Amino acid sequence: MGPMTATPAPTPATNRPKRVLLAAPRGYCAGVDRAVIAVEKALEQYGAPIYVRHEIVHNKYVVQTLERKGAIFVDQATEVPPGNIVMFSAHGVAPTVHEEARQGRLKTIDATCPLVTKVHKEAVRFAKEDFDILLIGHEGHEEVIGTSGEAPDHIQLVDGPEDVAKVEVRDPSRVVWLSQTTLSVDETMETVDALKEKFPQLISPPSDDICYATQNRQLAIKELAGQAELVIVVGSKNSSNSQRMVDVAKQAGAPAAYLVDFASEIDESWLEGVTSVGLSSGASVPDVLVQEVLEWLAERGYADVELVKTADESLTFSLPKELRNRDLRAEAAALVESE
Questions:
Q1: Which of 119, 128, 127 is nearest to 147 (CA)?
Q2: For the CA atoms of the chain, what is the radius of gyration?
Q3: Residue 142 has pLDDT above 60, yes or no
């Protein structure tokens, strides 16, 4: 019998090397990138001020940065003085908002994400075919308000599986579901399943409305959640897709998950007993904010960064057509002079 070898004792968690698991993809999606560049380009082409109806994207840092460059954010197009330019945010607006801008003698730049526009077109098409449309989404969210406005007489909101019981339709054989693009994939399908139980002939949209970026960021978070004791998502509280990432992390097994706008919001007590920190960011978050969190963590011993890549993203969108070969400032002034 050979010499016995001792089995090494497991390394206590406190002695394991500290590391950060950095999600890829994360941060800006193509629609957000397009919207932010559109504001910058409009300011460059037409000069300040450029009015923007609602936050161009749901991120404090982005909004504050654009304000410093000359963007003015308003709640409604009716607040903009006649003869000016107003931009619509990535979340989209209802047709009534376009009409308000026209009556207010404003020129518009529509920075609605093309994936949201796709949902709007689906809503219009199904309404023309006289379907009842069940829109899965969160009440009060700007995207939901915009989509509902495309066909208000045909759309009813379903805010989660618990809402299904109260849904009533005219003809169960002519019902279709659409969804807000920034929801959790799992959450949406749970609602769809509940709707299909009630309406077996429910039609699905021609393509999955949950956007590629939302799905990709949630898949990456699921991967991180199984390996990290703490998950930090960089994003704003009013960002639906960022909030969903935190929910997904918890559901996927992360002992703790938090949403922060800036590194300064991280509570050091969250790090107690933690060796692996998962880090990602919502689709409206510039990567400079993630880099600041990485620096903050490195200062506290989490200098080892491992990239956890679950997808490649190469999609880009062209800028709004209103930014091509036009002088919107002159066109806006002419609207006032023509009175």
A1: 119
A2: 23
A3: yes
Using CA atoms, how far apart are residues 116 and 104, in angstroms rounded to an integer?
A: 25
Mean pLDDT calculated for residue range 238-266: 96
Burial class of 2 by CB neighbour count within 10 A (0 to 12, 13 to 18, 19+): exposed
3-to-6, 7, 8, 66 alpha-carbon distances in Å: 10, 13, 15, 71
The token pair that represents 256 in the structure block: 């703790």
pLDDT per residue as tens digits for the range 29-79 = 999 999 999 999 999 999 999 999 999 999 999 999 999 999 999 999 999
Residue 103 backbone phi and psi in degrees, to 5 = -70, -25
Q: What is the average pLDDT across 13-24?
A: 84
Reported in sequence order, the residue ranges of 2-42 that DSSP labels E, i.e. its strands, are: 19-24
What is the widest separation between alpha-carbon atoms in the chain? 104
Q: How far is the C-alpha of 208 from the C-alpha of 203, rounded, in Å?
A: 12
Any idea what DSSP says for residue 13? G
Closest CA to 62 of 259, 236, 218: 236
Which entry of 142, 143, 187, 322 is annotated as an active-site residue?
143
Instruction: Read off the tokens for 283.
Output: 């689709």
Q: Does residue 25 have a cis peptide bond before it, meaning omega lies within 30 degrees of 0?
A: yes
Side chain identity, residue 149: G
Contact 300/271 with Cβ under 8 angstroms? Answer: yes
Residue 63 phi, psi (nearest 5): -60, -45
Cβ-count burial 135-169 (b if 16+ within 10 Å, e if not): bbbbeebbbbbbbbbbbeebbebbbbbebbeebeb
| Sign for the pseudo-dihedral over CA of 134, 156, 111, 99 | positive
Whether 40 is a known active-site residue: answer: no
10 Å CB burial of residue 75 (0-12, 13-18, 19+) is: exposed
pLDDT, one tens digit per residue, over 116-134 is 999 999 999 999 999 999 9
Token representation of residue 7: 């089995």
Q: Residue 241 corresponds to which tokens in the numbers above?
A: 């897709």
Run of H or E residues at 156:
strand 155-158
Both tokens assigned to 24: 């890829």
